[in-house]
Amino acid sequence: MDMSEREVTVPQSQSQPQSPLATALPSNLTGTQSQSHASRRQLKRNSAACERCRRRKQKCDGKLPSCGPCLLVQEKCVPSDRLLIRVDPNCQCDVLKERVRDLESQLQVLRAERHGDSGSPGPSNHFYQEYNSGPPRIVDNRDITYHGRILRPTFAESHGGSMLRPPLRGSPWQLWAGDPDSRASPRRTTDFTADLALTPDIDALVEVFFTNRWPQLPLLHKPTFIQDDLLPLTRGEPGQLLSSFRVNMVLAIASAETDSKDNPQHQHHVHRTFFEAAIKDLSTVMSANDLDCIQCLLLLCVYGTNEPQLVNIWYTLGLALRIGLGMDLHQEETSSTGQSLLSQEMARRLFWCTYTLDRSMSIAMGRPLGINDSEITVPVPQQLTDKQLCSGEAVLNPIHSPRDMSTFLHVIKLRQINAAIYMSLHAASTSASNECGSLDVLRERHYTELNTWLVTTPRYGPASGVAMLQTPEWFQIAYHYAVLSLYRPSRVFPVTNLASLRLCADSAISLISCYNTLYAKNRISYTFVALNSLFMAAVMMLYALRSSPTIRSELSKGVARANIDMCQRLLRGISDGRSVGERCAVVVGRLGEATIDVFDREEAVNDGIDTEFMSWFGLKLQRIHDSEIGQGVTPSINIPWNDLFIEGFNGFDVGSYSYLDLIV
User: Which of 133, 403, 559, 630 has the lowest CB atom count within 10 Å?
Assistant: First the structure.
């Protein structure tokens, strides 16, 4: 027994394989050994014993935070170092990750430089966050189709638009209402998503927008737009919730801005495609934060100046203005010192962009202004570039640059003068006045302001690559159009004098000549405001010639005919083949033929003007409700003018020349 016990206990005390001697043992001893091995196999050997169990050379169950033996005696259990994850001293993961982040940042800067901004790409957070009490709460409504008034035409048909008689509406209504080229195409049943990564010349289109349209309406901050909106979409990333809308609207405006004379149908299809892609997010725009919503609505208005029948500019602009007034953007106290330079300046830019568009549209459409100048206390934006806004340093530029606010600030000043002229002479509440002395003083004051404005217009060097809206010719056009508004017949001055008529004729011919210069340089950018201003200048030139034999003698018949032909050519040219341009040309042609015939007539006039014609034509608006209107005998020479006023443009439809036979 002693021998057997020693032979059996030997393998138990040593961790060695079973001895061959065990095979010769009795079966009962073998069974006892197998049971002992079975019980050992149920235990898991823990090589990572705690420090106390290792010192005492006892078994450790390895439980955490305290093993069983240490917990039993209430001793502190220190886990073995084998349970700890040691950091490889040769590992450089953190360094490499930091290097990757640095390289990605440099790549974004290089991409921004490629788009024309060598400075930093701007902050990642939008400026609107400082104007809202909390983070933006924008609801993704891209699956909801917008069917509101924004997408209705600006100049609706008579059954759905203004309730005034057609002759009493402004010329834009009679030019664009019912225009087949401006009607909105039926909405596509299939979804369209502009693949910006595959869009050719996307960089060129973005540059067209920021070169041609941005100087007068700086409603986007270019570095922020490129970093937060454009680059993510071109990389195939989702970007922000409104990134798709902003990018597609910028591309739509730029596509409509580019020259479409070579292939107008293709060009119209391109910009309308971008527009249709953008309005898919219009429901999301309407639920966005206030400043973001204003920014997107103004983009729609800018596009509407090219396509007034696809966007209801009057309604959309009024909505943007009301949102801004609700935020008190028109008050100086809103611009607190706690805001960053970018937030403060962009809020001011958005308000003054809304202001200039409101003045332009209200005057063009003959409607009330959205806000009085006396209610505005917020300063105009500083003359800074977008790059300076990123740096946070408000250092004014001593020299005008096409990339700063110099053009925009000058446009703001012009719109203020335009509004003052409109309210004093052309507003619906004004009426004919006998106080000619005070009105002459008012005219002289505004005329002096316009001359000062023209003298102080910014001048850019030839290497600047300025757009049409920054050329000396455009500033001349804006000046002469304001002079026409100041001295043409109005509600206050239905009958004017020879000096005013001569000034109107000179400004009208100068405006037409400036458009001709830009057209010869292929610098014309089509908008309905530009076409309307050219048309009104042509009508005013013909009106001055018809009203004054003195002006006719100064101009001569041959020069007058050449000016009429030039007007017709320009109206057809800058409209890019649209039927509205042809309609304007037909009206000018018919009025021109009637005016040319007057050169051969001898008329008895007083003070060099035809007072009878001016009283007959200028006072019709004052007597529009007279029951005898239209019953009197109209001289045959004045039939085109009578038709223009009584019938509107309905008697001047393209292809309808029945009235021409009645002209003597």
Answer: 133
